Amino acid sequence: MAKIIRSNSAKKSSVPSVPKKSAKKAVKSSPRPAAKKSLKPKSLKQESWTPAEVHEAFSRFRKANPEPKGELEHLNPYTLLVAVVLSAQATDAGVNKATRALFAVADTPEKMLELGEEKVREYIKTIGLYRNKAKNVIALSEKLIAEFGGEVPRTRAEIETLPGAGRKTANVVLNMAYGEHTMAVDTHVFRVGNRTGLAPGNTPLEVELGLEKVIPSEFMLHAHHWLILHGRYTCLARKPRCEVCLINDLCRWPEKTV
Ligand code: SF4
Predict the structure, then answer these.
(1) Whose CA is nearest to atom 3 of ligand 1?
(2) How many angstroms separate the CA atoms of 1 and 168, rounded?
(3) Which of 58, 248, 252 is the pocket-test mutation for ligand 1 (most atoms within 8 Å of CB)?
(4) CB 3.0-4.6 Å disulfide test: which of 39, 41, 101, 224 passes with 16?
């Protein structure tokens, strides 16, 4: 997924950045536990959004893009799971480039095992941390066959037991493959949740739970994609495009430019 961009030292952002992941653990996409030191700046005093404001914001997102789609290419729940595992610390475009050819020959755990780790490595060698990721893809395929009848399980707890899959992976798969109202918090959602004041939090888990609490159920199926796309194309990390932002009148960020 998109890389983490740290705040510019010249102009300190009032938004905490997603806690950094170590290279070793990067293939795990689960959020890290809360840092000991609070990342929430003392100056950030945002008024909570009213339910009417939240409804208004998501009504605007829905009107602008009624059926938002994720950008990771996949053919079925299994290839979605693999794509999300491969996307840790990588861009969706980079993952898609590698998985198009991979999924053409291996779109089930059985076919992936037949292909073998060495060949999987070859297909994905353009993606960061590809050696570990190839290992995880093979190991998770084995586990799916051994314990889940070759199917991607439908609970977060079960998905989280798969090598390379953490809470965020589970939330993406449950939402996109099975239509569950989960909220996967990546770097974009984390930033938007904090900046707007919709769900301020020091960790992805805090933001996830905060968003789940305030977003009405009618919007939850697509809320994850609306927020990712908003962060990726409008509420950019370094230069948010507040002037064209759909929710700039509602946003609580003191540094917004409108
Ligand atoms: S007004 Fe600016 S900071 Fe606020 S959500 Fe929109 S783009 Fe982001």
Answers:
(1) 256
(2) 11
(3) 248
(4) 39
Cα 228 to ligand 1 centroid, rounded to whole Å:
13
For ligand 1, the distance from its centroid to the CA atom of residue 175, given in whole angstroms, is 25
**Surface-to-core class of residue 135, CB atoms within 10 Å of its CB (0-12 exposed, 13-18 middle, 19+ buried):** middle
Q: How many other C-beta atoms can be found within 10 angstroms of the C-beta atom of residue 248? A: 18
Residuewise pLDDT in 10s, the chain (258 residues)? 333 333 333 344 445 555 544 434 433 444 444 444 444 444 456 789 999 999 999 999 999 999 999 999 999 999 999 999 999 989 999 999 999 999 999 999 999 999 999 999 999 999 999 999 999 999 999 999 999 999 999 999 999 999 999 999 999 999 999 999 999 999 999 999 999 999 999 999 999 999 999 999 999 999 999 999 999 999 999 999 999 999 999 999 999 999
Q: What are 146's two structure tokens?
A: 């051994």
Contact 43, 16 (CB under 8 A): no
Give, using CA atoms, the residue closest to atom 8 of ligand 1.
Answer: 235
Q: Is 92 one of the annotated active-site residues of the chain? A: no
| CA dist., res. 165 & res. 223, Å (int) | 21
Residue by residue, what is the 3-state secondary structure of 3-44?
CCCCCCCCCCCCCCCCCCCCCCCCCCCCCCCCCCCCCCCCCC
168 catalytic? Reply is yes
CA of 138 to the centre of ligand 1 (A): 41
